[in-house]
C-alpha cells in the first residue's frame, strides 16, 4: 500500500497539518500507520467526516427541538447548583477531564489562579475540542492574574489556532463553541473582536443554558464598552428574568455588568441591588474573582457596600484587583494603543472613575461614605500621578 505524509494529506483535504495529526491520533483515518514519529496515511484514504462524529456524541441534551453541543465546554459555568454546594457538586462528578476542568474553573473563579494553571496545563492539546478550548481559556486568564503574560498569550493564540482548524460552516455547533470562546477572550480583555468572527447571536440557540447566559453577559459587556448603558442593562435584566434555573457563575457576571451600567447612568440604588445579588450568589462558594476583575468599572460600589460589612473578603478582592489589573494592562495597552491608568490605588481609581463620569465631589463623598476633603485628595493624587491638570482629562485614562 502506498502512503502519503501528513503534509500531503493536509494539502489534499485542504485542512491544517495539525488537524490531520489529530485525526490520526484519534483513529479517525482508516489504515493509518505510525512510522517512528511520523504518520503514514493511505493514498486512498478519505477525509474524515467530522459532522458525523459530532452527531454521534452522547453528551448532549435536548431543549425543544434543538440539540445542544458544548456540554463539556466550561462545565462549571454551565452547571446550575445551589450556592454553597459548588465543591460538593464537583466532587460528585465522574473522574476525568470534565471534572478536572470544572475544578480548574472553581479555583480560577475563587481567586486561586496558581492551582487553575496547574490543572489546565495538561489539557491545552487534549483531543476533545471542548476540553481543549476550556483549558486554553482558563489557562490564559489564570496566567494573566499571575503576571505570566507570555503564557497567557500562548494559550490565547493556541485557542485561536484550534478554532481556525475547524470548519464551523459544516458543523454549526462547533461554530457556537468558536464564537463563544473568541468573544469571551476578546471582550473581557477589551480587545477588538476577531474580524472573521460570526455574530454570537447566530450561535446562541446552539449553546446550552449556562453558556447562553454567559454569552449574554459578554454581549452586555461589549454593549457597555460602546457606552450603550441602557441597552446593556436591558440585556442583563432580560437574561436574568428568563432563566429557568440559576447558573451562579454567569449570574454573578451578569449582575456585575448591571452594576457598571447603573453606575454609569447615575442610579446607585439599582447598582447596589445588583451588587448584593451577585454577592449572595458568590460568597457561599467564595467565587470572588469576578468582583476583583470588575473593580475599576463598579464605580466605588465595592467600597460603599462590601468593605464595611465584609472587610476580610474586601481585602482579598483588592488583592485580586491589583494582580489581575497588572496582567490585564500588559495585554490590553499594547494591543489597543490605549493607556489605561496603572499606578493609582484602588481608592484613587474608584474616585477618579466617578469623577470622569461627571460625579461631583459631594456625590462621590455620599456614595463612598468618605469626606469631601478625602475625595478631593484622591482626585488630586490621580491627576498628579497621571500628569494631567484638568479633571475633564481623567476619562481618557479610565477603563472603557
From TrEMBL:
The keyword Transcription regulation applies. Keywords: DNA-binding, Transcription, Transcription regulation. Residues 337-400 form the HTH luxR-type domain. The keyword Transcription regulation applies. Coiled coil: none annotated. Pfam families: GerE. This is Helix-turn-helix transcriptional regulator. One of its GO terms (molecular function) is DNA binding. It comes from Zhenpiania hominis.
Amino acid at each position: 500500500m502506498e502512503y502519503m505524509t501528513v503534509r500531503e494529506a493536509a494539502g489534499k483535504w485542504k485542512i491544517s497539518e495539525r488537524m490531520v495529526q489529530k485525526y490520526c491520533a484519534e483513529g479517525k483515518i482508516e489504515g493509518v500507520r505510525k512510522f517512528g514519529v511520523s504518520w503514514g496515511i493511505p493514498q486512498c484514504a478519505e477525509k474524515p467526516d467530522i459532522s458525523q462524529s459530532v452527531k454521534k456524541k452522547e453528551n448532549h441534551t435536548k431543549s425543544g427541538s434543538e440539540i445542544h453541543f458544548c456540554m463539556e465546554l466550561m462545565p462549571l459555568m454551565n452547571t446550575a447548583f445551589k450556592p454553597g454546594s459548588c465543591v460538593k457538586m464537583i466532587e460528585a462528578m465522574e473522574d476525568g477531564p470534565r471534572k478536572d476542568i470544572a475544578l480548574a474553573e472553581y479555583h480560577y473563579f475563587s481567586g486561586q489562579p496558581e492551582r487553575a494553571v496547574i490543572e489546565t496545563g495538561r489539557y491545552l492539546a487534549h483531543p476533545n475540542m471542548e476540553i481543549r478550548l476550556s483549558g486554553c481559556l482558563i489557562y490564559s486568564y489564570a496566567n494573566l492574574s499571575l503576571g505570566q503574560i507570555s503564557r497567557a498569550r500562548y494559550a490565547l493564540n493556541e485557542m485561536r489556532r484550534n478554532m481556525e482548524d475547524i470548519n464551523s460552516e459544516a458543523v454549526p455547533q462547533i461554530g457556537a463553541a468558536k464564537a463563544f470562546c473568541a468573544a469571551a477572550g476578546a471582550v473581557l480583555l477589551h480587545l477588538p473582536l476577531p474580524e472573521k468572527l460570526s455574530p454570537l447571536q447566530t450561535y446562541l440557540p446552539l449553546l446550552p443554558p449556562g453558556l447562553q447566559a454567559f454569552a449574554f453577559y459578554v454581549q452586555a459587556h461589549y454593549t457597555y464598552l460602546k457606552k450603550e448603558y441602557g441597552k446593556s442593562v436591558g440585556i442583563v435584566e432580560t437574561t436574568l428574568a428568563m432563566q429557568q434555573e440559576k447558573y451562579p457563575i454567569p449570574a454573578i457576571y451578569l449582575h456585575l455588568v448591571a452594576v457598571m451600567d447603573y453606575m454609569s447612568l447615575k442610579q446607585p440604588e439599582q447598582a447596589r441591588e445588583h451588587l448584593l445579588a451577585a454577592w449572595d450568589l458568590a460568597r457561599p462558594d467564595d467565587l470572588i474573582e469576578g468582583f476583583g476583575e470588575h473593580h475599576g468599572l463598579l464605580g466605588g460600589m465595592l467600597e460603599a457596600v462590601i468593605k464595611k460589612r465584609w472587610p476580610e473578603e474586601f481585602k482579598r478582592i483588592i488583592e485580586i484587583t491589583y494582580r489581575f489589573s497588572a496582567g490585564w494592562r500588559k495585554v490590553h495597552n499594547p494591543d489597543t494603543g490605549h493607556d489605561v491608568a496603572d499606578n493609582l490605588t484602588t481608592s484613587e481609581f474608584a474616585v477618579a472613575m466617578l469623577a470622569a463620569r461627571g460625579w461631583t465631589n459631594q456625590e462621590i463623598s455620599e456614595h463612598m461614605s468618605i469626606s469631601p476633603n478625602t475625595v478631593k485628595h484622591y482626585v488630586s493624587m490621580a491627576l498628579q500621578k497621571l500628569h494631567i491638570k484638568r479633571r475633564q482629562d481623567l476619562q481618557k485614562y479610565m477603563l472603557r
